[in-house]
Amino acid sequence: MKKVAKIIGILLLIIIIAGFVFYRTLLPTYDGTLDIEHLQEEVTIHYDMYGIPHIYANNETDAFTALGYAHAQDRLWQMELIRRIAPGRLAELFGEKLFETDRFFVALGIDEASELTVQNLDKNSKSYKLAQAYLNGINEFIVHGATPVEFYLTGTDKTEFTLKDIHNVFGYMAFSFAMAHKTDPLLTEIQQKLGNEYLADLGLHVDPKTTILHNYPEKKKDTTQIQSTLVSSVHHALDKLPIPQFIGSNSWVVAPQKTATGKVLFANDPHIGFSQPSVWYEAHIHTPTYEIYGYYLAGTPFPMLGHNRNIAYGMTMFENDDIDFYWEENNPNDPNAYKTPTGWETYKTRTKTIHVKDGEANTQTYKTSRHGPVLNGIADGVDFQKPVAMSWAYLQHKNQLLEACYLMSHANSQAEFEKSLSKIHAPGLNLMYGDSEDNIGWYAVGKLFERPTHVNSKLILDGASGNDEPIRFMESDENPSAANPTWNYVYSANNQPDSISGSLYPVSYTHLRAHETRHDL
Question: What is the pLDDT of residue 191?
Answer without folding.
Answer: 65
